[in-house]
Design brief:
The complex is a heterotrimer. By secondary structure, chain A is of the alpha/beta class. Chain A contains 4 helices and 4 strands, in the order βαβαβαβα. Chain B is of the alpha+beta class. Chain B has one domain: Heat Shock Protein 90 (2-Layer Sandwich). Helix content of chain B is 37%, strand content 34%. Chain B contains 4 helices and 5 strands. Chain B has a 5-stranded antiparallel β-sheet, with helices on one face. Chain C has 2 domains: 153 residues, Globin-like (Orthogonal Bundle), CATH 1.10.490; 141 residues, 2-Layer Sandwich (Transcription Regulator spoIIAA), CATH 3.30.750. In chain C, 68% of the residues lie in helices and 9% in strands. Chain C contains 11 helices and 5 strands, in the order αααααααββαβαβαβα. In chain C, α2 crosses α3, α3 packs antiparallel against α4 and α8 packs parallel to α9. Chain C starts with a helix and ends with a helix. The chains are: A alpha/beta, B alpha+beta, C alpha/beta. Chains A and B meet through α2 and α3 of A and α1, α2 and α4 of B.
Chain lengths: 128, 135, 306
């Protein structure tokens, strides 16, 4: 079993539109370059997330999924979380963790699981 | 009702947008709103401002601190001279969008504030008023 | 009111005071256990002084400016008496009892003119009634203030966030939950998650008598917000009647986990935590180098400040 590589991205300021789109492109490129299997998106110092920014986060998760990697959103502030729920943006498909440590744990678990499934697939093919 | 403070900003590009959002947050803090309420009004303003940039080719935002009896409130008015909203009912439906966005902007913003008012005239423009009170 | 009346009361102020105090002492209006005679005399004197000051032939409008000092004094007397333990009735009677004394003195000058006596008495009666009811208003306002303060304290005290275990927060909700309180619980819990880094919260509602749609929605919103922050909410103690409410109100519980009792919820929470730990241990065996490798890349990229 091989442990995948992780990518930690810390967003330190407010994200605005063009920066959000740039971030999306950067992440996709970096994922490919390092063959990372997991992304930690640390947003603990982001004070505002509106629906556009929510969409960017959703897209990061979707793109990473397509590139065989998991995204965990880490450290969302309570006020931001309530605001997103009130906005109707519950992001059910996004993995979340309270802090970076728990985020790494969650990612490792996901990657292990994924590898096991891959191995199982491999096993079945071998017996064929 | 009396006007305590007023700021007016012209919104033409993303920088103005960020600046305006910052001022909303600043004034929300000034009247002593909780962090949650600050976040809510700033997020709601953000949704409306973005609509204004995309659909209204920019416009004007007026941010006011208002006193009523013993309480204080923050009013955010966004005005544009854009194409207006053709079907207001449709615009408030969750998930409706004209540009592949999530379609949560208008209904979401309405959820986040105490008072919400939208006036729109086709091909003339749109005015959105948001209001929160300090409890 | 006739000038004669005003003059009479001003002239005979001292006699009136003595008569009034005497009447209060005889009529059992004085609470010996709470105050002594000197206090009563002082209060009565103060009131009568102010009362003679505001008396004038024309003005009986208690909302007018002239009446502000006497009203203020009545409020002060009431508050002082309430603190001492006087009932609202006793304080009101203190002021109302002045009527009898005044009637006694008015009789002496209007003896031959019964109609005039009647009108004068009526005016005085109305005036004293108005002033007497201020004691009630003050009493009630003070009580309301106490209730409001206690309610606030209760609200704060009644939603404790307990650290149940390492990694598990407990929120027992007891009593009636209105939307203001559920909002407060929501805030408090999410902040506690943020402060402690605990990833599981058990919201126990077995002590909640009734659950309305709004409250249920608040709890579910809390749960959704907690998930966005990376924590799991387990709701325990859903009674049969509340379960029926949830069904009949057509509330979607969504991804929220529910358990019948608090103990089952704790069990579940421990399982979740153990799963995490086992995994951690499992990884540690023979894979340390891989973790190191993983971490180094993490560090490398953490330098990216976007």
């Amino acid at each position: 079993m091989k442990l995948g590589n992780l990518l930690l991205i810390t967003i330190q300021s407010e994200i605005y539109d063009s920066l959000g789109i740039k971030l999306l492109n950067d992440i996709a490129e970096t994922l490919e370059k390092h063959n990372s299997k997991g992304i930690l998106l640390d947003i603990s110092s982001v004070p505002i997330i509106d629906s556009f920014m929510g969409r960017i986060i959703n897209n990061i998760a979707s793109i990473s999924r397509l590139m065989d990697a998991h995204t965990v959103v880490v450290g969302m502030q309570p006020a931001v979380a309530i605001t997103l729920v009130e906005l109707g943006l519950e992001m059910p498909n996004i993995l979340t963790a309270i802090n970076v440590e728990q985020g790494i744990e969650l990612l490792n678990k996901k990657i292990t699981k994924m590898n096991r499934i891959d191995e199982a697939d491999q096993g079945e093919k071998d017996t064929d | 009702m009396k006007l305590i403070k007023e700021k007016k900003i012209r919104i033409k590009n993303e920088n103005d947008f960020l600046n305006a959002r910052g001022i909303v947050k600043e004034l929300a803090e000034e009247i002593g709103l909780s962090i949650l309420s600050q976040t809510k009004i700033t997020t709601a303003s953000s949704e409306i401002l973005r609509n204004m940039l995309i659909h209204g080719n920019g416009g004007i935002i007026i941010i006011r601190i208002i006193g009523k009896e013993t309480k204080k409130g923050l009013e955010v008015i966004c005005e544009d001279k854009g194409k207006g909203i053709p079907d207001k009912e449709l615009a408030f439906q969750k998930g409706f969008s004209t540009n592949k966005s999530l379609g949560l902007g208008l209904p979401g913003a309405k959820n986040l504030v105490d008072e919400f008012q939208l006036d729109s005239e086709l091909n003339k423009g749109t005015v959105v008023k948001l209001m929160v009170w300090k409890r | 009111m006739k000038n004669d009346t005003v003059e009479l009361i001003a002239e005979k102020e001292e006699e009136i005071l003595n008569h009034w105090v005497e009447a209060q002492l005889n009529g059992n209006l004085h609470r010996e256990d709470l105050a002594d005679k000197a206090d009563l005399l002082r209060e009565s004197n103060l009131f009568l002084e102010e009362f003679t000051k505001v008396l004038s032939p024309g003005n009986f409008d208690v909302t007018s400016e002239e009446f502000i000092p006497i009203k203020k004094m009545i409020v002060e007397i009431t508050q002082k008496r309430t603190l001492l333990g006087y009932t609202a009735k006793e304080t009101a009677l203190f002021i109302f009892s002045l009527k009898n004394t005044l009637m006694f003195f008015l009789k002496s000058i209007y003896d031959k003119k019964p109609t005039l006596l009647l009108t004068e008495l009526r005016t005085l009666n109305e005036l004293i009634d108005e002033l007497g009811t201020i004691t009630f208003d003050t009493f009630i306002a003070d009580r309301e203030e106490i209730i409001r303060r206690q309610r606030k304290e209760l609200l704060e005290a009644s939603t404790p966030i307990i650290k149940l275990w390492d990694g598990i927060l407990g929120v027992p909700i007891i009593g009636t939950v209105d939307s203001q309180r559920s909002q407060q619980i929501m805030d408090k819990l999410l902040n506690a998650i943020n402060d402690t880094g605990f990833s599981i919260a058990i919201i126990d509602i077995s002590g909640v008598s009734t659950l309305d749609t709004l409250t249920a929605q608040h709890i579910l919103k809390t749960s959704a917000a907690a998930r966005l922050m990376g924590a799991t909410c387990i709701i325990s103690g859903i009674s049969p009647s509340i379960a029926q409410t949830i069904i009949s109100l057509d509330i979607d519980l969504g991804v929220t986990k529910t358990k019948g009792t608090m103990s089952e919820a704790i069990q579940m929470a421990l399982q979740i935590i153990n799963n995490k730990k086992e995994h951690k241990l499992g990884l540690k065996h023979g894979q340390d180098s891989d973790i190191e490798a993983g971490k180094s890349i993490v560090n490398h990229h953490s330098k990216r400040n976007l």
